Batch of 4 targets.
Target 1
Amino acid sequence: MTSRRRFVGAAATLALGASATAARRRLAPAWADEPPGVRTIRLETREVLWELAPGRTIRAMAYNGRIPGPEIRAREGERLRIVLTNALSEPTTIHWHGVDVPNAMDGVPGVTQKPVQPGETFVYEFEARPAGTRWYHTHATEHRQLDLGLAGPFVIEPAAPEPLPADREVTLVLDDWATGAGPALPPTREGVAGGRGEPGGMMSGMMGRRGMGGMMGGRGMGGMMGGGRTPAYDTMTINGKAWPATEPLRVRRGERLRLRLINASAEHTHVLRVAGHALRVTHADGNPLAAPVEVDAIPIAPSERYDALLHAERPGAWFLYCTQPGHADAGERLAITYPGHEGAAPAPPALDVSGLRLWHYGLGRGRALPGVTPGAARTWDLTLGGGMMGSDRWTINGKVYPDTDPLRLRRGERARVRFVNMSPEAHPMHLHGQSFAVLGVNGARLPAPLVKDSVDVEAHMGSVVVEFAAHNLGDWLLHCHKPMHMEGGMMTLVTIR
Ligand SMILES: [Cu+2]
């Protein structure tokens, strides 16, 4: 954009002989009020009719008419001014997930800003950092607006070149939908991202869920399940489309692709696999690992991101798909084709993951987290609870937001948070404003801390220990990223003064 603006400005001056400023104002009024060194991006929220797949069109909410919203690409440190115009008939805000924005730009209604009312405009301005696969999404009546499509990818390119370059990048946003048009998929209750230390433990959890799926079969009124408010999710999409409407990925032999995987789902963990190919995980939540980790499939909890390298070295036609029960059939697959195999039908997705190498937190070695200096850390124990007997009440230390106790920190202090999950569902816990290092999972210390901003705490006494340096001033939300759980109370504040 910057170079294009310069070019347009220069061309106009040559052609018209007018002052560059006047020419620029006439050609592109939006740029006229743009301070030097700032790039302006415009996002408009509005209701749309969105075709998930042929014959399955729904009333949804979109940024700039697209689901997911347009990919924002920025250079690390670049100053962005993002102008949000709300053309919905209800208030909204945008949260910049994984970006260390100033507190007033964080997009949390009632905490960092007033909700943006219908017809209003709000200007977000911040420096894009840290580098990595980030995303943006609504933070207002999130259960409804996130479910209806208000999310998009946000890629911050590092100032230094990536140590493992790729020939091409492909961003894939995974999402779950409750359209009321199909049988309900089994819920992802227990969580698989942490891995329970052993793939075997994880598998038994998955078998358990498959059993639950049968019990949860029918769909209730208005696409909602009978017990509680969890919608009956029936459609899974990749970049806003369900198979067979997903866009095929055409690759050449020898090509190296960087897949940027973003789970924008409200409820479901996805286990992503490319048939016939290994995946090399290079980044967790956008943050680089010290070395890539080769796996066969990657569990991704809601709000998590993984970057993975795919080396195209097996000509044919293959599915990229989710191995979770029902997901691939509900739309979560796309065809990967090599030249000469464009019309070929890939083998049906194999859902059995026994014997496969599955990513889990214990496999990744993160790099040092900037700002985390040695020294004593204050520790908070947060017990995640609620959800008993189908209740919609989700708690931290027995309390429901806004009655939860804030974690009060001074800038520069180090905080250690120990999550223990006493509830029957997994909770992907997300901290705003700064990333944390994951030190331990389910009682085992990780070989090296993994830097993330969301971490899945597995159900039934799963635990996670994280640590961060309080460096970003303000009031930051720490919450479960399943919107029904956050709206049910599983939120607290981290205040940094
Ligand atoms: Cu939760």
Target 2
Amino acid sequence: MISATNNLRLLWAKRRLRSYLDTHVLSLNEEHWSVLRRLAQGKQRIRSALPLDFPLDELVAARLLRVYTEELNQSASNGSVATLQFVEAVNIELTYSCVLDCAHCLQSDLRHAGNHQWIDPSAVEHCLVDARNLGLVETGVNLTGGEVIQPGSNLLEILNITATMGLPVRLNTSAWWGAAERVRLGDHRFSPGDLLDYLIERGMKLIALSVDGRYRQYPSLWSALVKVLSLCDQRKLATELLFTGVSGPDIRSTLALLRHQTGSPLGSVIPGGSDVVDIEDSRNISVSPPRVSGDLSQTDCALKRFYRPRYLHIAPDGGVRTCMFASGAGWLGNIHEQSLWDIAKGFPQHRLPRAFATLEVTGDEPKSASRPSHPCAQAISLANKILERGSGPKGQKIVGSPPHKVEHLGGNPPRFSTDVVGVLHHGCF
Ligand SMILES: C[S@@+](CC[C@H](N)C(=O)[O-])C[C@H]1O[C@@H](n2cnc3c(N)ncnc32)[C@H](O)[C@@H]1O
Ligand code: SF4
């Protein structure tokens, strides 16, 4: 079975697919083009025979299509659905420990409850080897926190692993260290510029820096951001600015300010972002009608994040989950205890991912008046409902953390736009 990669979907959305094919010297006839277009639009997965001369290998090599591994296909043909096939990239949360305490942070309760552990690098290594064999890290690996750049960090150990495996890395940091003279990372000390050089040398292809309400809370952080941005710009490093809960006009004015303050057109900057999510929203929702497929069609997540496990999130305790917002709920398994391969094999048997994988989400059902302010919150509520309806132990909640008190700023997430094709982009973590 074959399906589209993120790359293909992005290129299609940005109308760059034809020029990308040109640069890869791939000329498609009308029949091939129509197959590729249907895949890019996410309309279908191809199970049946492709046109005889379809350039599948070339399109896989160009990172536009992916072919599912035999073993996962087998579990699909056994009657269970190999839902892990939806995963395209792995996000590793090295820790929930952080040098800041942003008011909106979805991990703040975990942190305040004393969750400061760091992920075990040897488990990460085994996990990534399996992930590569399962075809889950074609676009690379995202490393995030908490804050990955801080004295007690094991980031350098993790980068040794990803660099040895030749995996491209996207790194998410708050940029707090931009203003520091020296940054300590484990046993190493770096100037901010040297740190960036080291990270680039170790395979960091994209750095993601957050721009959100935190600069009101920590005004002095702004100069650190500007400094890191300048240093990245000097190195022509692809830099994603993660605007969370920021409106389109504010993004434009912030970009203008940053260009002014860095004295650069910031040609390598990619704006991205999302809504601020209030997980607590999911607690007060009653969804009707009580058909799961109907419930799901009321949400507008568009097969991103929670619904389809496009990304695999790995928590500092090794827990594996499909939803970035259900922090620490490692309900698919745990890489500190099992191989990812075993987790992958068990995945089709899990009631929840199975439900998500088999549902026909038509999108034509009436919208519920009681929709939560963020689709992820509704998805979590639905997931809990599915579990409660099944025969599994009651109270096996997807989200078990104490209430978050965060402001929902609403608004449409800004559109992701990048010329950096081939560099992984995971959305908003
Ligand atoms: C959890 S942070 C970890 C990386 C790093 N400490 C940082 O802040 O960039 C990753 C991203 O999640 C975003 N985030 C935190 N809380 C959020 C929430 N409640 N809703 C949506 N995004 C959130 C942050 O703004 C940040 O861009
Ligand atoms: S958003 Fe990032 S910087 Fe802020 S507290 Fe959360 S992990 Fe730390």
Target 3
Amino acid sequence: MNAIVQLELSDSEFSDIKELVFSTTGITLSDAKRELVKRRFAPRVRELGLPSFKDYVRLVQTDKGDEVNHFCNAITTNLTSFFRENHHFDLLKSEILPAIYQRNLDSERRIRIWSAGCSTGQEAYCLAIILRSAIPGLENWDARILATDLDEKCLSTARQGIYREDAFEKTPSKIVSENFSKVDQLVKGQATPSLQAKLEIRKLITFNKLNLMHSPWPMKGKFDVIFCRNVFIYFNKATQAELVSRYARMQDPGSFLCLGHSEVIQDPEKVGYKLIGKTAYQRV
Ligand SMILES: C[S@@+](CC[C@H](N)C(=O)[O-])C[C@H]1O[C@@H](n2cnc3c(N)ncnc32)[C@H](O)[C@@H]1O
């Protein structure tokens, strides 16, 4: 049996990896993330049979194939859950969607929502569930949810919309039974009781790969609601500010932007937003 080679991460390798992570994902790693970097990248370095992190960095820098994707996927944190930070979904149901409904009822009846940094899709499915419950006669509306992430593996889970039953522990059973169907999913070769989002929910969402750092974004139309939650925390202040300006350009006055619980826009008025709730903003 081959012994596992201990990989050392030198100061210069750590610094090169930090730079590469920043230039490919916008994520800023502090010096405290050294062990995390080692833990996340060492399996891939070994899998590729490379002798050091330095060789791995060189490979990613010169990669013409899929290695940059592996690199990005290895460093992102994909933690998410159904109805995480539920106050935003309450606000969506009680204020945001009723306002959009009234505004668009006698015009184009169009609604566009974007879950930016959607991870494995739970946030987008919650948006679809709330959208269906808050807009009467939704089938007569041109309503779409775009959900994007840079992690292709997460997106493939998201597209299937299948989650283990224990992912719904904190979700009211009525919401689960109305919007999900029981399926068996193979997890490590074992049939595992799971639930799949019903077709009418899945049909509302398009999952696409998008690196928020890339420019320009391919979307043309404006968004009535943007959820970009628990993504900003990985970015530095300048990157956060740049993203907020880009979001502002994708939204007309009266539209809404929700960030994660520890993410705030400094001086929202300066960039065209006003605070309307806990980390919830309206475009002015
Ligand atoms: C912690 S998850 C947040 C998921 C969900 N929004 C929530 O609040 O539960 C952060 C997600 O942001 C994605 N992400 C990080 N940097 C990104 C970038 N530059 N472009 C697109 N997505 C990115 C990660 O892949 C990850 O899935």
Target 4
Amino acid sequence: MNSQEQFDRQASHYNSEWNQWSESSLEWLLNHSEARITDRLLDVATGTGFTALAFAPRVAEVVGLDVSNGMLDQARSRATDSGTQNTSWQQAPAEKLPFADASFDLVTCRVAPHHFVDIRAFVSEALRVLRSGGRLLVADTSVPDGLPHLDEWQNRVEWLRDRSHVRNYSPGEWSTMLTAVGFAVEQIERCDEAKPIRLQDWMAKSGCTGDAAEQVEQMFRDAPHDARREFSIEQLADGDVAFKWMRVVLAARKP
Ligand SMILES: C[S@@+](CC[C@H](N)C(=O)[O-])C[C@H]1O[C@@H](n2cnc3c(N)ncnc32)[C@H](O)[C@@H]1O
């Protein structure tokens, strides 16, 4: 299943409960954006607009872009309900941004790059649409550098749970990709969430059932010792499992 199909299906129940899983990373982006009230901001893979709407009061204009019209409809309603007037929403892929060169001061992208079929195309496109001196801010699930078995375990679990998952990149991979296209990486950090995720809830939200759900549960039961430590995996008394995914947050500037 591709992202468009997966997120059209999830749009009606993609609400603040999901956002709780990534609230700290949103806080980090807001605190490190250096956003100015005159800025034009593009939020790539905006979903139902959590990041776009959080930035809207701090900038002149926000454009939210996503492949899923279902998610964009929710973003539009959310903007109307909150009385936000400086947002617009556009359907397009992150890999081919329908905007002129140097047309934005800021590009944000949160909890989404792991779905992109061509991450390098996204990074190049973000560079192209930013003005010189503009900044790219990213927050996403991640894997540790230099631990290939953890990387493989984590990305396999994610893919079994949601077939639109492509890959969680390590901080080192992000640095390499950004530097390769010409960004100057200014900050890159690990920013894990305060609130643990419960496995059954996590699978239910993406519609993971049957064989796939059993495989995910088995992988958690058999999780390597260092995966348990790295992702705070904990067996709960009620039979469910709690964990915290690793997050990477970063700011990179177009020279
Ligand atoms: C977890 S949601 C995004 C959440 C949102 N950024 C936020 O901060 O709350 C992931 C989004 O990525 C979108 N997406 C996945 N692949 C995409 C692509 N190649 N181009 C644009 N959007 C994409 C999905 O449609 C979905 O809305």
